[in-house]
Every structure is written in structure tokens, then in C-alpha cells.
Amino acid sequence: MNVVFLDVDGVLNAENSTGQVWGSGTYMQYSAWIIDPVLVERLNRISKEVNNLTIVLSSSWRYAEQSGHIDINNMLEEKGYVGPKIIERTICDDENEEAIPSQPRGKEIQRWLDEHPEVENFVILDDDDDMAHLMPNLIQTSFEDGGLLDKHVDEAIRRLQ
After folding, report:
1. Closest CA to 4 of 48, 82, 58
2. Which neighbouring-strand residues pair with 56?
3. SS3 call for 132
4. Contacts of 24 (CB under 8 A, 6+ apart)
5. DSSP 9
6. Does pTM surpass 0.90?
7. In percent, how much of the chain has pLDDT > 90?
């Protein structure tokens, strides 16, 4: 199995996404509801070129989905996503798994990996760098520089093939 651990903010949306003008307050208020179809098409490229792919939601968006506020698959499909359904999510070690944890995201990813020994290759698409010992697997995007770029897609495909 090949796995992409997917963040959303800073990967599938960015400062210049969908023509939206972002300000500091605007970003915090509206970013969670904007997914850029151009960036989704780049994610589609990974899905098309990598066999046996699983996408694991490692984004804080998983909390909004868990609580029923959003449906990530529907949101992505509305923007043109054609890859595998997202049915897996990382979870935190906190007692209350609905609360946004304070631990590094890399620790949550490692927990998921420990429970799935069938993983052959994986990459992490994220704009943050709290990956602890998993930093070599991070393909770091940037909210300010456009999110998921072609160079990130090329690197993810290379590492997963």
C-alpha cells in the first residue's frame, strides 16, 4: 500500500486560492471552506500515477468531519477530485479524540503507521513541519507560495512509485 497523509489548509488551498483575497482575519474565518480546484487536480495526478494508493486525512479538518460539520469526500468531489475515497484518518493519543491535540502531527501519523504494517511507501503533504522523526517523508507545501505545486506532485509520485 502507498499512502499520502493529507493536510488541507496550505495544501489544497492557499493565499491565492480560487481568486479569494486573504487577510489575516479572513483566512482564519473562511479558509476551512475553500478548496482550490487547481490544487485538487494536482492531487488527482498523484492518484492517477500511483498504484494501490490510500489517502489518509491528517489535517485538523478531520475534527470538523468527525463532528458532522463537513464531508471531505463531497467537498473534494465538488472541486473535481477523482481519486480514492478518503476513509482513513489519523487520530491523536489524547483522551478526547475530538479535541484538537497539542502533540506533533508526526506522532499521530506514526500511530496510524504502527496500526497498518502493510504500508510500503508514504509521503506527508503538509505546510507544517511538526513531523518529528518523519521529516524525511514530508513534502512541505506553503500557504503563502500556492499550496500543492507541480514540483510537490512530481516528488510525491517519485517517492511513491
Report:
1. 58
2. 5, 88
3. helix
4. none
5. B
6. no
7. 63
